[in-house]
Amino acid sequence: AVQLFSTSDVINRFVINEFGLSTKIIPFGVDTKFFKPINQKKIKPIVIGIIKSIEPHNGIEFLIDAFNILIKKKINNIKLNIVGTGSIENRLRKMVKASKLEDKVNFFGHVPHNKILPHYQNLSIFVCPSLRESFGVSVIEASASGLPVIANNVGGLKEVVQHKKTGYLLDTTNPEKLAEYLEKLISDDNLRFNLGQNGRDFVKQKFNWNANVKKMLTTYKDIV
Description:
The chain is α/β, with parallel strands linked by helices. It has helices at about 10-20, 60-70, 90-100, 115-120, 135-145, 155-160, 175-185, 190-205, 210-224; strands at about 5, 25, 45-50, 80-85, 105-110, 125-130, 150, 165-170. The strands form 2 sheets. The chain has a 6-stranded parallel β-sheet with strand order 5-4-3-6-7-8, sandwiched between helices. The protein is globular and about 60 Å long. The model has no long low-confidence stretch (mean pLDDT about 90).
């Protein structure tokens, strides 16, 4: 017997449409004992962040544009952390310099996965402006770490963010819109904490590593 697996509804639909085959959807899981918040009530400064490769399809320039809009509005208690490296890193560094944001935007380069936790725990808000995404592992790691998430309303991201409950889904290629939602979270501490807590609950319930491994093993046993 052959059993195909996929991690999201988006991939399942693609396989059905392209090949006429259906898959069993078992999402990626995260270890919520490892990914957890340390400082739930962190107020200032507000640290906005992304943990992604610095490639064109991850839309990081839109986040820098939105951040620049906030700074121009004299919202000063904020920083932006970019964790990752990639082919357009120099372009983005130049962009940051041109907007005179060097003292507000931190590039951390590549961080190995076993050292990534403190980078989530240092954040107040996680942003995923990817132009395409089949799933969004960094989003569920961020939610497990108690962070509210703003993500582009595309692909698998629609399955890992519950709009207005664990964060917001919107067109993040529109920097004004992205800035508006960031400002909403920056200005309301309780909203940030509540969405972050909802996100952690959502991950525990749907993307729990142990539960998903068990589902996989059960399916293998059924086939054998």
